[in-house]
Amino acid sequence: MDRAEQKTTKPHRIDWRLSLRTKWTLIVAGTMVLFFAIFAGVLYQSVAQILLSREQGSVQDTLTAVEQRLAPLKGEVTMNSVNPLLNPNYINADTDSLPIPKQQTNFFSDSLIAKLSREDITVSVYDLHGGLVFTTRSPEAKYTSRTAEGFQYTRSDGGKHLIATRQVHSATTNDHIGTAIVYDRMDTFNASMQRLLWQIVLIGILVFVLIVIVALVLMNKLIKPIRQMTETMTVVHDDPNTDVRVPALKGNDELSQLVGEFNGMLDTIQRYIKQQQRFVQDVSHELRTPVAVLEGHLQLLNRWGKDDPQVLSESLGASLQELDRMKHLIQEMLDLTRADNAATTYPNAVTLVLPVLKTVYNNTVMLHGDFQIEKDFDLAPDTAIQMYRNHFEQVLIILLDNAMKYSRNRKEIHLSAATDQSTVSIVVQDFGRGIAPKDLPQIFNRFYRADEARSDMDVSGNGLGLSIAHRLVTEYGGDITVESVVDHGSVFRIDLPLYKGELPPEEAAEAKDDHDDDDELPPGIIKMS
């Protein structure tokens, strides 16, 4: 049993994921350190080249001085002929013994002797057979027949050394009389380069620490809005209707724009949530009455309708009327819900204003012959707005229907349109009962109807028309206002942004054809060509 439990138990996994702040810090620090390393490497090599050139020049001068000292000799170099020229303090000894220069604490006035006195330089002179005839100290570079003339770098004891070889020729006979070798341990160069390397390493460590600190500070500043977004999302997840938002950032960079878009997205999501909640509440509230009426008539039919044809007829008629009212109510509520997203559903829609006005005007005149409808369209044929055609037509129908619905004895409506440099204005005026001042602020609220309208049985409706019109107009960036005087009528005005771009092909062709239309003909009469 224990073995089975051990097999089914999954081993605990360590989460090796790095935070975004740590990743960005490492990336920034690593990049900066890489750049510093490249810069330090270039600097190190440049300094090395400069110091090497100096060392090589010094060795070159030493070889030249030795060659110039030995050039007067006519024959092969020997100890007796070389030592007096290169070391004035040379003491004669047996010809078989090697010359041993006396070391002095002071420097000779001769420039060559000053060069030979350097502790890290050894100057050796060999005869034609490879025999050592002179050296400033124990030779560190052995001469062979294969020793090439020129400069050669070697490495030993953790440092870099320079060996320079040159053949010495007699100035009199121009014959090869010997070979001079200069061995430069380059102690100063090696010490300087090692000191520079340590300085670069220490500065690199300091730079890395500073970069990490600065990167952490910057990353904290950059990550702070993201952290606040995460915290805000957590709060919104727990309470979708919360008003908590990410604090706005100063400046106009990408993070501030991201915060703005994030807060806007939360506002949109909450608006949709509220719309859904309000839709459910409105449906449950508005459908309660017709459902209760249907229920009452069905109970009435169940009790007496089977035996009483009059009760049966009245109940069926009332039920059908309530069903029709429910159908219109649901359709209007769906229209209102769609109106909340109209601009995002048709973001590129362009509509010519004049053809829609003419269509709605002609249809209204044909359907309501008892009304006198006056029109005044002071618009160019190519006047357009960025709005879906059906939505624009729906707004006009709602306003005209509302004007006719609340008209009394004077059945007259004025429909006019004009434009300025940036706006298209459409006005619908009626001469009906008007709207009380206390009702004006609320007429665009859904399901709102003034007390007079509720008491008037001849005025049908659910109080959604003006709300739908208001939502459609505002969704497309427009504005709808109303002025009204009780018993004298109302004036509804729509202001929509004028479309100033290039018309789509279909709208451009329709605007061109509209130049040939005769606006003075009666509605329904087509001009014959």
TrEMBL record:
Q: Name any one GO molecular function.
A: phosphorelay sensor kinase activity
Which UniProt key words apply to this protein? Answer: Kinase, Membrane, Phosphoprotein, Transferase, Transmembrane, Transmembrane helix, Two-component regulatory system
Q: From which organism does this entry originate?
A: Schleiferilactobacillus harbinensis DSM 16991
Does the UniProt entry include the keyword Coiled coil? no
Task: Show the stretches that span the lipid bilayer.
Answer: 24-44, 196-219
Q: Where is this region: Disordered?
A: 504-529
Ranges where the HAMP domain occurs: 220-274
Name the predominant localization: membrane
> Which protein, by its recorded name, is this?
Signal transduction histidine-protein kinase ArlS
The secretion signal range is none
Q: Where in the cell is it found?
A: Membrane
Q: Which residues form the Histidine kinase domain?
A: 282-500
Q: What class of enzyme is it?
A: transferase
GO CC field: membrane
Q: Does the keyword Transmembrane helix apply?
A: yes
Which SUPFAM superfamilies does its entry note? ATPase domain of HSP90 chaperone/DNA topoisomerase II/histidine kinase, HAMP domain-like, Homodimeric domain of signal transducing histidine kinase
Catalysed reactions listed for this entry: ATP + protein L-histidine = ADP + protein N-phospho-L-histidine
Q: Tell me which domain of life the UniProt entry assigns to the organism this sequence originates from.
A: Bacteria
Q: How does it sit in the bilayer?
A: Multi-pass membrane protein
Q: What is its EC number?
A: 2.7.13.3
